[in-house]
Specification:
Blueprint: H1 2-28, E1 40-45, E2 57-59, E3 67-68, E4 74-80, E5 97-98, E6 104-105, E7 107-108
Antiparallel strand pairs: 1-2, 1-4, 3-7, 4-5, 4-6
């Protein structure tokens, strides 16, 4: 009886250790690439030329993708606004920073409103 109780205790301890490891891993893993960081929003490049100048970009509704296929132009990029909220039709604020490697190729097409 003592042997089976020891074995049962070892199994329970093993399950607890594995469960704890799985829980710890879920808190230490990096966020998935498709999850946006707070304050990061996609702005459209009005010039089509690679740029980090906020005046070259405009914010539009994030539910619509406004880039038509064109591998020669830059269509959009993500900007980190910090705690600011984007306003449709406006450029990123001067305090915003462009997110490295977030530019997407294509040609910006203004929405038809």
């Amino acid at each position: 009886m003592k042997t089976s109780l020891k074995n049962f205790t070892k199994v329970l301890l093993g399950v607890a250790v594995l469960g704890g490891a799985a829980m710890t891993q879920s808190f230490t893993q990096k966020p998935k690439a498709d999850k946006k960081l707070a304050g990061v929003h996609r702005f459209y490049n009005k010039t089509g030329i690679p740029s980090t100048n906020p005046a070259d970009f405009i914010y539009q509704d994030e539910e619509n993708l406004l880039c038509q296929e064109n591998q020669e132009k830059d269509c959009s990029a993500e900007w980190n606004l910090g705690t600011a909220n984007p306003v449709v039709g406006q450029a990123p604020p001067s305090t915003a920073t462009i997110v490295p490697n977030s530019a997407e190729k294509g040609e910006y097409q203004e929405p038809m409103n």
